[in-house]
Write a structure and sequence with these properties.
The protein has helices at about 20-25, 55-60, 80-90, 125-130; strands spanning about 35, 45, 50, 70-75, 90-95, 95-100, 100-105, 110-120, 135-145. It is α+β, with helices and mostly antiparallel strands.
Length: about 150
């Protein structure tokens, strides 16, 4: 079965259907000025929250609110337990500080699933941190927000 791809960027420069276009074509009554809370990279999937409240959007996205986002992440490579423990305290990569990331290994192996919980959500943060751990992300799914 072919995957259906919706993007959140409105309008999409490549002409792909956006979440907003899909909602407008549905039978659901859509409030005006609908916005996404946070973002998902093109190669990510999962939970996407929508609101028409700008104050709520800013609060939910602000690192100072401490709102946790949780992801399932499939990685390829050997997992270093010491580096996972370091993630809990936060790390710096190329001068950029990444806050605490709670990490659990759901199934160890060369292709492993991890559960990651973080409160910042910097651009491509998980990909950069996994690269620092010498792991390649093959799938990233946001499963919780808040």
């Amino acid at each position: 079965k072919q995957k259906r791809i919706l993007v959140q960027h409105n309008p999409d420069p490549n002409g792909r259907k956006t979440i907003f276009e899909e909602l407008n074509e549905s039978d659901i009554e859509i409030p005006q000025h609908l916005m996404t809370i946070g973002r998902l990279d093109f190669n990510s999937e999962g939970l996407l929250l929508l609101t028409n409240d700008g104050h709520l959007k800013r609060f939910m996205e602000s690192p100072s609110s401490g709102i946790e986002r949780k992801y399932k992440c499939r990685v390829f490579g050997k997992i270093d337990e010491k580096r996972i423990r370091r993630l809990e305290k936060g790390i710096s990569i190329e001068g950029i500080r990444f806050g605490s990331i709670k990490t659990t290994i759901d199934n160890p192996g060369i292709n492993s699933w991890l559960t990651l919980s973080l409160a910042e959500g910097k651009n491509r943060e998980i990909h950069k941190v996994m690269q620092w751990m010498n792991l390649k992300v093959s799938r990233l799914i946001r499963i919780e927000y808040g």
